[in-house]
Amino acid sequence: MMRAYVLSLAMLLLLAFSGPALAIAVDSETLPDAVQESRARVIMNGLRCLVCQNQSIEMSNAQLAVDLRQIVRGRVAAGDSDDQVRAYVVERYGDWVLMQPPFKLATLLLWLGPAGLLLLGGGAVWAGIRQRRQVIEPTALSATEQTQVEKLTRPE
Amino acid sequence: MTLRSAIPLLLFIMLAAALFTGLYLDPRLIPSALIDKPAPTLDLPPLPGKEPGFIATDLAKGSVTLVNVWASWCGPCRIEHPQLMQLAASKKIRMVGINHKDTESNALKFLADLGDPYDTIGVDKTGRVSIEWGVYGIPETFIINGQGRIVFKHVGPLTQFDVDEKLLPAIEAAK
């Protein structure tokens, strides 16, 4: 019985480490400079494909993603910094195009919401436990109770 | 029921209401980053026989302009075409077409078959200019005010409802 538990637990743990199958679209034209190409890849990985929404442009085969990849490569080759390339795409498609939304006033709830909810829920649980732990102080017996106790405990 | 014990129920109702509204939001509609920004000033070559093409600086010459991104291979473009023809016939607005990743002969055939609502057409063979305009799914329609700023954007085919309820009010507001 114990063995079966340990085994299934180990298998669950293994599952937790398995990632989704990652696909990467293959382009015929890549940058000749390997450093630039890998920089371009990182940028592409952080840009959302607008046609297939939950994929980055690095993974997507949509025509728009192919075009955007070439633009990213072109900008990197022209000497833009990573942030400049990202800014170029954001200027045209908005923050939405970033896989990781930027931290600013409009996204405050998005970034701090989960932690806030955890604090709120944790606080509620903590308060609940505290309340339940409160010991009820014994009060003195009334005169009738006292005589009752004496009557009951009096040796026959 | 005391107020205290009603708190979880209230929280639940708020969450349910938020999630319920979320069910009816279209995740495919992406807010445009270009509203109130100057339209990209990139010139485009014409379709043969339909000169002079698209000269972007014309957009800032005082009149309101509609810019429509289309292609002959795009099915929804055929759906919205009657609405564009009607708009062109009303002479309310200057109409510019951006022909997106198309072949000349197919584009010309499309216009010969269904009619040409555009005052001028620019050819964007590679789709680069469409990216400058933040286009992600054609057809897309923009309204440019007299100062050359984008004031309205519609993604997808224009239905009669879209024209009456969104496009025409946007054109009036831009004037």
Distance between the termini of chain A: 57 Å
Strand order of the largest sheet of chain B: 3-2-1-4-5
Helical content of chain A (DSSP H or I, runs of 4+) = 55-70%
Tell me the fraction of residues in β-strands of chain B, as a range: 15-25%
Series of secondary-structure elements of chain B, N-terminal to C-terminal = HEHEHEHEEH
Report the structural category of chain A: mainly alpha
The number of helices of chain B is: 5
N→C terminal distance of chain B: 58 Å
Could you give the count of β-strands of chain B? 5
Shape of chain B: elongated
Poorly predicted regions of chain A: none
Q: What is the overall pLDDT average of chain B? A: 88
Number of strands of chain A: 0
List the helices and strands and how they pair.
The complex is a heterodimer of chains A (156) and B (175).
Chain A: H1 2-17, H2 34-45, H3 63-77, H4 82-93, H5 108-133, H6 143-153
Helix pairs in contact in A: 2-3, 3-4
Chain B: H1 3-23, E1 65-70, H2 75-90, E2 94-100, H3 104-114, E3 120-124, H4 128-132, E4 140-144, E5 150-155, H5 160-174
Parallel strand pairs in B: 1-2, 2-3
Antiparallel strand pairs in B: 1-4, 4-5
Question: Brief overview, please?
Answer:
The complex is a heterodimer of chains A (156) and B (175). Chain A is mainly alpha-helical.
How does this model look, in words?
The complex is a heterodimer of chains A (156) and B (175). Chain A is mostly helical. Chain A is built from six helices and no strands. The longest helix of chain B has 21 residues. Chain B contains five helices and five strands. Chains A and B meet through helix 3 and helix 4 of A and helix 4 of B.
Task: Name some characteristics of this structure.
heterodimer; A: mainly alpha; 6 helices; 0% strand; B: 175 residues; alpha/beta; five-stranded mixed sheet; 17% strand
